C-alpha cells in the first residue's frame, strides 16, 4: 500500500486494526462468548454471577492454593491439565447454552470461564522465571 494515495493507506490501516481486533475476539472462547452476549443485549458476565455455586468456588480456591504452594514442575503440569480440561468443558457447555438460546446460562458459564482464565494467567506467571 506504500504507493497508494494517503487516504487509501489510512483507510487500510483502520480496517486492518479492526480485522485484527475482531480476529482476537473470536479466537478466544471467553471473549467470543462475552461478545455474543453483548450482541444479544445481555449485560456482561461478572465473576460474581457464580457466587452462589459453593462447590465451584471451593474448586477455584483449591486450585489457587495449589498454585500458591507450587514446588515442582510436575505439580505445574498437573494444575495446567486440570485448568485446560475445565476450560474445554466450560467451552462445550457455553456453546450448548448459546445453541439453546439460553443466554442467562451462558452468562453464568462465562463468569466461571473468567475464573479459569485468571487461574491460567497465574499459572503462566509461575512458568516465567523471576
Structural commentary:
The radius of gyration is 19 Å and the shape is flat. It contains five helices and no strands. It has 130 residues and is mainly alpha-helical. It has one domain (1-127): HscB, C-terminal domain (Monooxygenase), CATH 1.20.1280.20. The chain starts with 5 loop residues before the first helix and ends with a helix. The protein has helices spanning 6-27, 29-39, 54-68, 73-99, 103-127. The mean pLDDT is 87. Helix content is 77%, strand content 0%. Its main location: cytoplasm. Keywords: Chaperone, Cytoplasm, Mitochondrion. Residues 52-124 form the Co-chaperone HscB C-terminal oligomerisation domain. It is found in: Cytoplasm; Mitochondrion.
List keywords for this structure.
single chain; 130 residues; mainly alpha; Monooxygenase; 0% strand; HscB_C_sf
In short:
The chain has helices at 6-27, 29-39, 54-68, 73-99, 103-127.
Q: From the alpha carbons, calculate the radius of gyration and give it in angstroms.
A: 19 Å
The CATH architecture designation is Up-down Bundle
Largest sheet: none
- Per CATH, the superfamily is HscB, C-terminal domain
Strand-pairing-aware structural class:
mainly alpha
CATH level 3 topology:
Monooxygenase
Structurally, the number of domains stands at 1
Order of helices and strands: HHHHH
Number of strands: 0
Give the averaged pLDDT, no decimals.
87
- CATH class descriptor name: Mainly Alpha
> Considering DSSP H and I runs of 4 or more, what fraction of the residues is helical?
over 70%
- How far is the first residue's CA from the last residue's CA? 42 Å
How much of the residues is beta strand, in percent? under 5%
Q: What is the quaternary state of this protein?
A: single chain
Amino acid at each position: 500500500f506504500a504507493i497508494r494515495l494517503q487516504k487509501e493507506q489510512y483507510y487500510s490501516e483502520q480496517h486492518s486494526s479492526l480485522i485484527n481486533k475482531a480476529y482476537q475476539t473470536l479466537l478466544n472462547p471467553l471473549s467470543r462468548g462475552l461478545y455474543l452476549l453483548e450482541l444479544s443485549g445481555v449485560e456482561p458476565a461478572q465473576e460474581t454471577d457464580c457466587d452462589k455455586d459453593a462447590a465451584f468456588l471451593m474448586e477455584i480456591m483449591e486450585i489457587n492454593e495449589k498454585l500458591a504452594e507450587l514446588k515442582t514442575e510436575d505439580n505445574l503440569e498437573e494444575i495446567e491439565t486440570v485448568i485446560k480440561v475445565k476450560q474445554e468443558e466450560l467451552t462445550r457447555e457455553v456453546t450448548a447454552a448459546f445453541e439453546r438460546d439460553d443466554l442467562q446460562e451462558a452468562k453464568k458459564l462465562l463468569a466461571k470461564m473468567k475464573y479459569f482464565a485468571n487461574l491460567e494467567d497465574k499459572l503462566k506467571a509461575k512458568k516465567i522465571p523471576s
